[in-house]
Amino acid sequence: QVQLVESGGGLVQAGGSLRLSCAASGNIFSINIMGWYRQGPGKQRELVAAITSGGRTNYADSVKGRFTISRDNAKNTMYLQMNSLKPEDTAVYLCNADVMSYGTNHYFQYWGQGTQVTVSS
């Protein structure tokens, strides 16, 4: 089994910064793509940013230039540095990872429980 645990959320004023972390643990042989998603009040879940094991990144247009995704493959950990936060960034942020476990030959998608980010105006 694999667990993803997010941390780093909280309440911040508009213009402020937060750094989210997502730590993967358990039966992990390899992690392919990792990503951050968010779901705001009354909104659908959306992709915020994603990163491959080789470091290639992809961002939603709404966060380009403000958010930076990174990962430490040795620690099975992903980060999201969020700067210049806006009230519309308020959401539950969820970690997602494609993981191959020992004893298998395919990747399976896992989700974390989420961490709340609230940006006040």
Describe this entry's structure for a reader:
With 121 residues, the chain is an all-beta fold. It has no helices and 11 strands. The strands form 2 sheets. Strands 2, 4, 5, 6, 9, 10 and 11 form a 7-stranded mixed sheet that branches. The chain starts with a strand and ends with a strand.
Question: How would you summarize the topology of this molecule?
Answer:
Blueprint: E1 2-7, E2 10-13, E3 18-26, E4 30-39, E5 46-51, E6 57-59, E7 67-72, E8 77-82, E9 91-100, E10 108-111, E11 115-120
Parallel strand pairs: 2-11
Antiparallel strand pairs: 1-3, 3-8, 4-5, 4-9, 5-6, 7-8, 9-10, 9-11
Which characteristics define this entry?
single chain; 121 residues; 7-stranded mixed sheet; 4-stranded antiparallel sheet; 11 strands
Number of strands: 11
Please mark out the parts with pLDDT under 50 across 5 or more consecutive residues, or reply none. Answer: none
Q: What sort of overall outline do the alpha carbons produce when their principal axes are compared?
A: elongated
- Helix-strand category: mainly beta
Order of helices and strands: EEEEEEEEEEE
Oligomer: single chain
How much helix is in the residues? under 10%
CA radius of gyration is 14 Å
Query: Count of DSSP helices?
Result: 0
From the N-terminal CA to the C-terminal CA, the straight-line distance is: 40 Å
Question: Beta-strand level of the residues, as a percent range?
Answer: over 45%
Characterize the largest beta sheet: strand count, sense, and whether it forms a barrel: 7 strands, mixed
Mean pLDDT over the full residue set: 97
